[in-house]
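Ticket #4471: structure export looks truncated?
Reporter: QA, pipeline team
Priority: medium

Steps to reproduce: submit the single chain below to the structure queue and open the exported record.
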Amino acid sequence: MRLADPVFLILLVPLLAILFWHRRRRDERATLRFSDTGMFQGMGWRVWVARVVPALAYAAGTLLVLALARPQTGASRTEVKSEGIDIVLCIDVSGSMRAEDMGPGNRLAVVKEVAKKFVEGRPGDRIGLVVFSGGAYTQCPLTLDHGIVTSLIDQIDFGTVADGTAIGMGLATSVNRLREAKGKSKVVILLTDGQNNAGEIDPTTAAKAAHALSVRVYTIGAGSKGAARIPVDDPVFGRRYVTIDASIDENTLQNIAGETGGHYFRATTAEALQKIYEEIDHMERSEASTVEYVDYNEKGPILALVAGLTLAGALAIAGTLANGIP
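Actual output as written to the record:
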C-alpha cells in the first residue's frame, strides 16, 4: 500500500480544526438552562439522529481527502533477463572409470555427483550431456530443464557401448550438439581418465572443429597418478580387485584446451574435481539483469464513491428525520 499524492493529506488539518470548533460550540450550547424540559420528551431518537449527521459529514470529508491522496496497492513481479551459455558435459564411461581412487565409490560415481552440483548452479544456461567409451552418444540434448539433465546424469552407467576411450568421438559429438546453438558462448567440459584408443575421429581433428565453431573446451584428467584398483565381479570367486596403470594423455588434453581457448585441469580426488568445476563455473558466468515491475491498483475512486454515498446519507438524514429538531 502507498499514497501516490500524499500532499493532499494536509487537507485533514482544516477538517480537524472544523471538527474541534464544532465540538466546542456544541459543548457551549449544552450549558444553556431550560425552565421546562418537557419539550424534549419523546425526541431522544431524533436528537441522536441529529448527532449522526455531522459525524457522517466528517467521515465523508476524511474519505474524500484520502481519495485525493490516491492510495494504491501493488503486486510486484521480478523478471530476470539472462543471456545464457550453452554447455555440453562430455563424460568418459570407459571401464577404467570403475577405479576407486578418488573418494567414495568409483571415479564415475564421483564425477556424477560433482556434475549434478555444477548443473544445479547454472539456472540460466542450456546444458547437454554426452558420454563416451569405445564410441560416443548424446545422453541429453541441450535443455533448460535441469531436472531432466540431473536425472539423466544419475542414469549414466558402464556397458552402454563397447569399451575403449574415444576422446575424439566424444568431443566431436559434443561440438556437433553446439553447432547451431545460439547462446552467448559455447562450451564443452570434457572429462576422461585415459588415452584415445578408439573411434573414427582423432582428438586433434575434433579440437580443430571446435575451434572453427568457436566452441571453448575445458579438459579434465581424472584419477590418481600411478596404479589404481578396479573391482572385478567374478561369477565363481566373487568380487576381487585388479590393479591397472591407466595413464592419462595429458599432452592431448592440453592441446585440445589450447586449440580452443580453454584450460586443462587434473583432478586426483573428489575435492579437487569439485574445485575444478567451481573454477570453470566462475570463468563461464552468464550476465543476468533483474528488472522489477510493480502493478498498482488505484483505491482512490472506491474511497471517493464511499465518501459520496456517506455524504448523501448525511444530507438525506438532515433533510428528513432531523429536520424537525429545534
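Status: closed, not a bug. The export was complete when the record was re-opened. Leaving a note from the reviewer for reference: The chain has a mean pLDDT of 82.
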